[in-house]
Amino acid sequence: MASNPPAVLAPSRPLDEFEQKVYEISQRLGTHDTEGWDIDTQALRLTFESATQSPPQVNYLLTIAPKHCNMLGNLHGGCAATLFDVLSSMILIGVSKPGLFAYGGVSRHLDVTYIRPVPVGTTVRLTSRVVHVGRRLALMRSEIVRLEDGGICMVSDHEKANTDGDFEGDRGKL
């Protein structure tokens, strides 16, 4: 019986302890059934490239597939926003602690600025770094850059609210 391919590909080099943690968190992507909202890690050939704990940052490589494009053949803006939302959350969960974004929180604000189109077949690097983590709010800043020439295509600020208390039952009911 053949095993399923990993949701997110790993680099060919060994990962350090923190990278292994973020990589394992990333493996949860693309595993939801057809009823869930997720990114298609297989179509994107999503590859974990690296992560650092200090400063908290993660890098992924991905190749834009036709299913992620608008009718002009470029990465769809809504798909780009979803990529920023989901992938910037991986580094936040990576640096989380019990009670502090361990469940990833919920998006409070997601801002995407579109600078250049990303045509189908283009391989890009998506980099996300944690700017701030507080008790209630966190901010990640991300960018999508063309691998071939380093051209910045899109940038994003993603603010999340901590929901850990909601899961742990320490909030009063309405």
Short account of what is shown:
By secondary structure, the protein is α+β, with helices and mostly antiparallel strands.
Characterization of the model:
The protein has a single domain, classed as Hotdog Thioesterase (Thiol Ester Dehydrase, Chain A, Roll). It is 21% helix and 32% strand. It contains four helices and six strands; from the N terminus they run H-H-E-E-H-E-E-E-E-H. Strands 1-2-4-5-6-3 form a six-stranded antiparallel beta sheet. The chain is globular, with a radius of gyration of 16 Å.
Topology:
Elements: H1 17-26, H2 41-44, E1 47-53, E2 56-63, H3 77-94, E3 106-114, E4 123-133, E5 137-146, E6 152-161, H4 164-168
Antiparallel strand pairs: 1-2, 2-4, 3-6, 4-5, 5-6
Organism: Aspergillus calidoustus
Domain Thioesterase: 73-151
Protein name: Thioesterase domain-containing protein
Brief descriptors of the model:
174 residues, alpha+beta, Thiol Ester Dehydrase, Chain A, six-stranded antiparallel sheet, 6 strands, 21% helix, 32% strand, globular, disordered C terminus
Strand content: 25-35%
H-E string? HHEEHEEEEH
Gyration radius, rounded: 16 Å
**CATH topology type:** Thiol Ester Dehydrase, Chain A
Give the overall shape.
globular
Family: Belongs to the thioesterase PaaI family.
Keywords: Hydrolase
Domain Thioesterase: 73-151
InterPro entries: ACOT13 (IPR039298), HotDog_dom_sf (IPR029069), PAAI_dom (IPR003736), Thioestr_dom (IPR006683)
